[in-house]
């Protein structure tokens, strides 16, 4: 036997000893008998796998849909970013997961993953897109427009608006990176459309494997109780645009009410939207908004929308609808601002202690003469670190440790730290953990 053959056999044995087969269940759908149950799908995923050979077996799955298969592709990308070698096992059946995988262009998933100018080549009526940049954004919008080209112009504009906001969110806030060599690479988001001609229904899913709404939101609104509460919080006016370490609204490129407007428009369109992030699910329907919990958390965010395409639908002008929602948002925000101004204490660290906040004695004096008074009065304390280059642990502990300890766990709600750089933020988190046992 040749030397190369022996090496290949050894390599194959080693690979087999470090491998895992993941079998997609026979029934793999979000909706079962008209009822949404995301556990049917999310319980399949194991996010802890890394640095092994993984075979995803599609051959046993006979009941599924395009949305469910598209997030398996997203999962495969995530495993790849965790140094796994991922392969798919397919059957030759003309129905089931294997066929849907092929129709979506799934066999090219790793080419799409590593080449940001290449996208999926699949069924034109069931297209799947990797969403990474403005070019991909444009392609998705063009695909959506093609489904409603014979419809009321306002209907098309309204659907385009909702889709644009959701795509913007995943591009801006759903980013997830992996390191290969010395470079960081982006794990794309996905968007998939399915048009059911007989039902005259359009379904689309937008998903990412980022860090999820709760962790994003806690950069500006720390101490969220749960993933459900974080999703509901993100739907409030002037909140949905804050999922970023930097203040994206300082460039005036978003009004901060994108998700608020989108969810209200979805209800007006008589459509259904599910937002899944972490272990939380929020369902927005024409009748109400409900939340629930899933057993296996999804690391990023998934949005699923189901929309009846009715060419005779009566829809008011988009600008009129937007004006109504914006006025509602403004009233709600003014009310919240009034409560906040009465019940909050706001301070900028730089104004009191400079860009290099290091004076421990000054911190103790401020704590004892001002901060403790506000905390004991039950006020919400908002601390702005904008422009602060550094603040050592001794300074931060002198300023915040005792006030935090005095209120215990409620400190996560009572104290809000904004615009802190990563080192300061990490120190503050440590102080919070240390003083809220």
Report on this model:
The chain has 437 residues and is α/β, with parallel strands linked by helices. It has 16 helices and 17 strands. It folds into 2 domains: 3-315, Histidine kinase-like ATPase, C-terminal domain (Heat Shock Protein 90, 2-Layer Sandwich), CATH 3.30.565.10; 342-434. The chain has helices spanning 3-17, 39-42, 66-81, 97-103, 109-114, 134-147, 153-173, 212-217, 227-234, 258-268, 318-343, 349-353, 360-376, 393-407, 411-414, 422-434, and strands spanning 19-23, 27-28, 31-32, 35-36, 53-57, 63-64, 85-89, 128-131, 176-180, 183-187, 189-196, 201-208, 272-284, 289-308, 344-348, 380-384, 415-418. Helix 6 (134-147) packs antiparallel against helix 7, helix 7 (153-173) packs antiparallel against helix 10 (258-268) and helix 13 (360-376) packs parallel to helix 14 (393-407). The chain starts with a helix and ends with a helix.
């Amino acid at each position: 036997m040749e030397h190369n053959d022996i090496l290949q056999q050894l390599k194959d044995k080693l690979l087999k000893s470090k491998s895992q087969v993941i079998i997609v269940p026979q029934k793999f759908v979000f909706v079962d008998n008209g009822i949404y149950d995301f556990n049917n799908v999310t319980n399949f995923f194991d996010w802890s796998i890394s640095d092994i050979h993984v075979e995803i077996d599609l051959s046993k799955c006979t009941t599924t849909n395009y949305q469910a298969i598209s997030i398996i592709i997203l999962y495969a990308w995530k495993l790849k970013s965790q140094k796994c070698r991922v392969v798919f096992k397919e059957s030759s059946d003309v129905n089931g997961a294997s066929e849907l995988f092929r129709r979506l262009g799934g066999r090219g998933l790793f080419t799409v993953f590593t080449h940001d100018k290449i996208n999926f080549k699949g069924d034109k009526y069931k297209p799947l897109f990797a969403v990474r940049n403005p070019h991909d954004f444009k392609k998705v919008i063009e695909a959506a427009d093609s489904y409603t080209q014979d419809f009321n112009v306002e209907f098309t504009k309204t659907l385009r608006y909702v889709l644009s906001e959701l795509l913007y969110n995943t591009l801006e806030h759903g980013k997830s990176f992996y390191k290969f060599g010395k470079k960081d690479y982006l794990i794309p988001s996905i968007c998939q459309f399915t048009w059911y001609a007989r039902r005259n229904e359009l379904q689309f899913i937008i998903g990412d494997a980022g860090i999820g709404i709760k962790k994003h939101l806690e950069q500006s609104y720390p101490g969220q109780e749960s993933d459900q509460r974080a999703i509901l919080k993100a739907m409030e006016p002037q909140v949905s645009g804050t999922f970023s370490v930097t203040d994206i609204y300082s460039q005036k490129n978003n009004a901060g009410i994108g998700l608020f407007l989108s969810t209200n428009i979805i209800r007006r369109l008589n459509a259904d939207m599910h937002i899944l992030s972490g272990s939380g699910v929020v369902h927005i329907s024409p009748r109400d908004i409900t939340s629930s919990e899933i057993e296996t958390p999804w690391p990023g965010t998934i949005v699923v929308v189901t929309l009846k395409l009715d060419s005779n639908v009566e829809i008011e002008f988009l600008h009129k609808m937007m004006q109504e929602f914006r006025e509602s948002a403004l009233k709600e925000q003014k009310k919240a601002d009034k409560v906040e101004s009465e019940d909050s204490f706001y301070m900028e660290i730089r104004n009191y202690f400079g860009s290099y906040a290091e004076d421990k004695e000054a911190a103790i004096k401020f704590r004892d003469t001002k901060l403790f008074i506000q905390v004991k009065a039950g006020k919400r304390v908002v601390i702005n670190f904008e422009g602060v280059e550094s603040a050592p642990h001794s300074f931060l502990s002198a300023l915040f440790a005792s006030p935090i300890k005095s209120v215990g766990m409620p400190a996560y709600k009572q104290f809000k730290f904004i615009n802190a750089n990563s080192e300061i933020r990490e120190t503050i988190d440590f102080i919070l953990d240390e003083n809220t046992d």
